[in-house]
What does this fold into?
Amino acid sequence: MSSCSVLVDDNNLCGEAPLWDATGQKLYWTDCVGRKFYSYDWRLKLKDVLLTDVEVNGCALDRSGDLVFSNNSGVWIWDRVGEPRLLASELGPVKLQLNDCIADPKGRFLAGSCFYDPSTKYELGKLFSLDGSGELQILDEGFRLANGLGFSVDGTTLYFSDSVARKVYAYSYDVATGKARGRRTFIQLDSTEGLPDGLTVDAEDHVWVAQWYGSCVVRYDPDGRPERKISVPAKQSSSVMFGGPGLTELFVTSAARSEPMPVMPSGYDANSGYFGGALFHCTVPVTGKPEYRTDLRGIAAHA
It folds into this structure.
């Protein structure tokens, strides 16, 4: 088992959504609770705070060069100059209270909604898609805590984690129509493990999943078997992304504020220890793949 070390430590209350920009050689990530949005310039080795007092739960790059965000109010686009602009907040009576997101091969924006509240009977979440014409559709529903998303190398398999269900699902994805069908359980984590949170897919079609409460990132082969584990010195490791010039650098976000849930592993100590807050990094002998970009310029022009 290899391990990651600290790259940047801003004590993020809930570091999330790492995203690599191959053109600019920068990593973006968010502290969605602390409401800060960051970048790290790989060439200059410099961190920058790009936005404050703005909630960002997920992030994708647009083909225009803009950034597209998901948060509890919907889908937003930001030109890096003015204020973020709202693109969509609801589908009829259905609220777009969104967590993680991703772009598909055709430039659509996918994100899952999340209403998890263990203290009451809460609404189950849905998986949404927004295309460049502004059309919203529901791809699937019935999720307890929607989280990480990823695509296979050819774009025909979509992975989607439901943290509270302790599952990563796989769908057959029709790139032409943007439909996701045939949901199956790709990974079912045991109750002794952490929860599946953010994820990414490498160039060999293996899926890397950050384990919240698990202090690790696990690589799974295309059949869902664990292939290797990378230790993260933070209890709440939250998401993972490949980057660097050769896409062999692995970045892992984490969260400093303890978030106890009824689905914690047995014996997990939610009151002491290092929960996280740093951005971690390690070099791995595996190559990632570039993330797709959204194509939302058409609707952004009218936002």
Q: What stands out?
A: The helical segments are 297-300. The chain has one helix and 27 strands. Residues 20 and 158 are 19 Å apart (CA to CA).
